[in-house]
Automatic annotation (TrEMBL):
It comes from Streptantibioticus parmotrematis. PANTHER family: AMINO-ACID PERMEASE BAT1, OS04G0435100 PROTEIN. This is Amino acid permease. The lineage of its organism: Bacteria, Bacillati, Actinomycetota, Actinomycetes, Kitasatosporales. Keywords: Membrane, Transmembrane, Transmembrane helix, Transport. The chain crosses the membrane at residues 12-35, 47-71, 92-125, 137-155, 167-187, 207-228, 248-267, 287-310, 347-364, 370-390, 411-429, 441-459. The keyword Transmembrane helix applies. InterPro entries: AA/rel_permease1, Amino_acid_permease_CS. The keyword Cytoplasm does not apply. It is a multi-pass membrane protein.
């Protein structure tokens, strides 16, 4: 790919799959957004929407996997955008990289803040006199980010080990939660309950409410570009990275459907649970009792912590690669690698600090915090769309060993259409009446990112950033190899 090697290839096929599976994280995704689905469509959208959206995401993953096989680098999306563009390669690469960066930073911030919220819920269940506040959530999030940065500072073997553990934590945890929800309650909803529709959004249109409910699955299926970003540290990356993406999406779709069904059929008081501060937690308490619910909540919290860790790992590799090509302020700092651990330590701490900066507004306002992190999903999926769209425009695409053959372009076309549709959904109002608190600030946050990137591009970047850098011929690069 034209770069001297700085990172060690210690990730095996399972490790590469594990990072995307952990970032998708069915437990974290479903538990943090289940309440939205209960109010926007109900069980009908939660279950059948999960199936439909998962199929669409498989198209996105397959299109991304084909590109990952052709361009297996840490730069991933922005690198491939620069290589696939016919003209203005620097601009395509620039915008893709910044959308990816902001989306990943927002993802780490949102996941860790959700973990802090659930930690406070657990504490309040254990000690009823504890007072839950957003200020405490911010402080807990800061501690979580510190611990995750420390874990990422050490060798890539530690990160790989933690990701392996996270896979089994998710799978075993899912089985434990499902078995408890099936075996313990004396009453379950009838089979027909899966067709129940609910619209508590405040909007009169059932179609609109149901479309909003699809966001539950879309929110869950983000971050699978992690396998792409870990390419330079994965053995046989041209095959294992795309396989990691597809396996992570496929296994998450199947196991997530089982968990979704278990939660849906365990509902007892639909109105009360849908209006609770944390609906899935309320479902666990009503169905299983306080003691068992607390134990299962620990599984959920652990899953969220693993998710945040994997998010940060993926983010640091994107920062490392983007800086290697001179696109970040202070680039010469962020693409350095520790000679002892062979990890981009400075990029790790930059990722942690940036995520903390996004969390800090939550000290004063929930609305301000959600306005900042709402760009997470939109930023990520738009970054996914750019290289796939550019691949569609090419008359001839040189595929890697893992490819879709003649189905490559049709799959890419479906992926782009779905990304555009889901991105529009993420920017629409999600509750009525629309107030300063209920307003969806995703378009504002996305607009701010694009304005800043555009001003920066025309002010200075277009003269110095031309897209991915080539350090020389394969032989010259091999001579510079640092490992």
């Amino acid at each position: 790919m034209g770069y001297p090697r700085k990172l060690t290839r210690r990730f095996r096929a399972f490790d590469n799959f594990a990072i995307s599976f952990t970032i998708i994280n069915i437990i974290s995704g479903i538990f943090s957004s289940f309440g939205l689905g209960m109010n926007a469509g109900g069980p009908r959208i939660l279950v059948f929407g999960w199936i439909g959206v998962a199929v669409m995401v498989l198209f996105v993953g397959a299109a991304m996997g084909e590109i990952a096989s052709a361009y297996p680098t840490s730069g991933a999306l922005y690198f491939s955008a620069g290589k696939l563009a016919k003209r203005h390669r620097g601009a395509w690469s620039w915008y893709t990289g910044w959308l990816n960066f902001v989306g990943q930073v927002g993802g780490t911030a949102a996941t860790d803040f959700a973990a802090a919220t659930f930690i406070q819920a657990f504490i309040a269940m254990q000690w009823p006199h504890y007072h839950v506040t957003t200020q405490r959530s911010v402080l807990i999030t800061a501690v979580i980010l510190l611990l995750q940065a420390l874990a990422n500072t050490y060798t890539v073997q530690l990160v790989a080990l933690l990701n392996r553990i996270s896979v089994w934590w998710l799978l075993v945890g899912m089985v434990v939660i499902v078995v408890c929800l099936i075996a313990v309650p004396s009453h379950h909803q009838p089979v027909s309950f899966v067709g129940h529709f609910a619209n508590n959004t405040g909007f009169s249109s059932s179609l609109y409410a149901g479309m909003l409910g699809l966001l539950v699955t879309s929110w869950t299926f983000t971050g699978f570009d992690g396998s792409f970003h870990m390419s330079e540290e994965t053995v046989q990356a041209t095959v294992n990275a795309p396989k990691g993406i597809m396996r992570a999406i496929g296994y998450s779709a199947l196991t997530g459907l089982v968990l979704m069904l278990a939660l849906v059929y365990a509902v007892r008081d639909y109105a009360g649970e849908a209006s609770a501060a944390a609906p899935p937690v309320r479902i666990l308490i009503d169905a299983l009792g306080n003691g068992t619910a607390k134990l299962l909540l620990l599984i959920v919290i652990g899953a969220m912590l693993f998710c945040g860790l994997a998010n940060m790992t993926s983010n640091t590799r994107q920062i490392f690669a983007f800086s290697r090509d001179g696109a970040m302020p202070g680039s010469r700092w962020w693409h350095t690698v520790s000679p002892r651990t062979r990890t981009p330590v400075k990029a790790v701490w930059l990722a942690a600090v940036c995520s903390l900066i996004l969390v800090v507004p939550g000290w004063w306002s929930d609305t301000a915090f959600y306005a900042v992190v709402s760009v997470n999903v939109v930023g990520l999926f738009l970054a996914y769309a750019v290289p796939i769209f550019l691949r569609l425009r090419l008359e001839t695409f040189q595929p890697g060993p893992w490819n879709l053959g003649r189905y490559g372009k049709p799959v890419a076309a479906v992926a782009v259409v779905w990304i555009v549709l889901s991105s529009v959904l993420f920017m629409l109002p999600q509750a009525s009446p629309i107030t300063a608190k209920s307003f969806n600030y995703a378009p504002v946050a996305l607009g701010a990112v694009l304005v800043i990137a555009t001003v920066w591009w025309f002010a200075t970047a277009r003269r110095r950033f031309k897209g991915p850098v080539s350090y020389g011929t394969p032989d010259e690069v091999a001579a510079m190899d640092l490992i």
